[in-house]
Amino acid sequence: MSIPQIVYKGHGTGNDFVMYADPDGVYEPTEDEIRFLDDRHFGVGGDGLLRLTHPRFVADLSVEQVADLEAAGAEWFMDYRNADGSLAEMCGNGTRATALFAQRLGYMDAPGGEPLRLGTRAGVKVLTSLGEVPGLGRNVFRIDMGAWKAGESRAFTVTIPDHDGSAKGTFVDMGNPHVVAVLEDRTGRGLADDATLPGVDDLDLTRKPVVDPVLESDQNAEFVRVDAIDDDHGTGRAFMRVNERGVGETLSCGTGLCATAVTLRKLTGIGDWTITVRGGTLRVVVDDAHVELTGDAAIVGKVELL
């Protein structure tokens, strides 16, 4: 077995992970081991696997990538794999769970201390520990998610098998690919006038959405209801659900939350969003240069594998 005997279970607003530390680089998991650990009936159960290690111990990184990460101050790396065993470029909720794990292990300062510069396949992400934040949680971290890229608004058509109707989606690159569709708009601004899919609460996201034109990379697909916009304060509130590539529906998706806020900023001009997902509530702030994601994380258990 190429995984340690002791693993941990953690989550970021319900997006859950099997986790372990590998400071010596001796526990690189196989795809079969990942699928076993993340199986909710026969394993520990999770949306993915988080291995906390040093960049030089991540087999798929080139020498140049390792050098760039280390030069940027990333002593630690979040080696994230989807539940089906595939590699993932980035996981926003996973970075918060990883940061809390690193904090508990003494690899990151307590709230008020120095931020953690965490290596990922999408570059270095800087995480600041905020501690308890009313409305967001007890172990809250703010992540500078870095730069974003977005395509033309509503350039994709999104359907769901066995659902009537469709919606227009916007492509957003957050280090991993997303297509975001607004299905409902309670503000009366016409943000969902082209959507004929059922409401966000009524979707069956166990079925993988179909995106046209097809993206070779596949994508996460987000479905959004806009609940309120306060023009005076430049803020908005929304609700989101997501189907993640390689996983299915998850209770939360950090990069998906960021992609949603980017899309809503393109449509409304508002860049400060409080977004609720089935696993909790987070805040996302978008400007021209980057995205900040703020939300809770938890470590819920320690598991001895037999």
TrEMBL record:
<dbReference type="GO" id="GO:0009089">
    <property type="term" value="P:lysine biosynthetic process via diaminopimelate"/>
</dbReference>
<comment type="pathway">
    <text>Amino-acid biosynthesis; L-lysine biosynthesis via DAP pathway; DL-2,6-diaminopimelate from LL-2,6-diaminopimelate: step 1/1.</text>
</comment>
<feature type="active site" description="Proton donor">
    <location>
        <position position="91"/>
    </location>
</feature>
<protein>
    <recommendedName>
        <fullName>Diaminopimelate epimerase</fullName>
        <ecNumber>5.1.1.7</ecNumber>
    </recommendedName>
</protein>
<dbReference type="GO" id="GO:0008837">
    <property type="term" value="F:diaminopimelate epimerase activity"/>
</dbReference>
<feature type="site" description="Could be important to modulate the pK values of the two catalytic cysteine residues">
    <location>
        <position position="178"/>
    </location>
</feature>
<feature type="binding site">
    <location>
        <begin position="244"/>
        <end position="245"/>
    </location>
    <ligand>
        <name>substrate</name>
    </ligand>
</feature>
<feature type="binding site">
    <location>
        <position position="176"/>
    </location>
    <ligand>
        <name>substrate</name>
    </ligand>
</feature>
<feature type="site" description="Could be important to modulate the pK values of the two catalytic cysteine residues">
    <location>
        <position position="244"/>
    </location>
</feature>
<comment type="subunit">
    <text>Homodimer.</text>
</comment>
<dbReference type="GO" id="GO:0005829">
    <property type="term" value="C:cytosol"/>
</dbReference>
<feature type="active site">
    <location>
        <position position="91"/>
    </location>
</feature>
<comment type="similarity">
    <text>Belongs to the diaminopimelate epimerase family.</text>
</comment>
<feature type="binding site">
    <location>
        <position position="220"/>
    </location>
    <ligand>
        <name>substrate</name>
    </ligand>
</feature>
<dbReference type="InterPro" id="IPR001653">
    <property type="entry name" value="DAP_epimerase_DapF"/>
</dbReference>
<keyword id="KW-0963">Cytoplasm</keyword>
<keyword id="KW-0457">Lysine biosynthesis</keyword>
<dbReference type="InterPro" id="IPR018510">
    <property type="entry name" value="DAP_epimerase_AS"/>
</dbReference>
<comment type="function">
    <text>Catalyzes the stereoinversion of LL-2,6-diaminopimelate (L,L-DAP) to meso-diaminopimelate (meso-DAP), a precursor of L-lysine and an essential component of the bacterial peptidoglycan.</text>
</comment>
<feature type="binding site">
    <location>
        <position position="82"/>
    </location>
    <ligand>
        <name>substrate</name>
    </ligand>
</feature>
<feature type="active site" description="Proton acceptor">
    <location>
        <position position="253"/>
    </location>
</feature>
<feature type="binding site">
    <location>
        <begin position="92"/>
        <end position="93"/>
    </location>
    <ligand>
        <name>substrate</name>
    </ligand>
</feature>
<feature type="binding site">
    <location>
        <begin position="254"/>
        <end position="255"/>
    </location>
    <ligand>
        <name>substrate</name>
    </ligand>
</feature>
<keyword id="KW-0028">Amino-acid biosynthesis</keyword>
<feature type="binding site">
    <location>
        <position position="15"/>
    </location>
    <ligand>
        <name>substrate</name>
    </ligand>
</feature>
<keyword id="KW-0413">Isomerase</keyword>
<dbReference type="Pfam" id="PF01678">
    <property type="entry name" value="DAP_epimerase"/>
</dbReference>
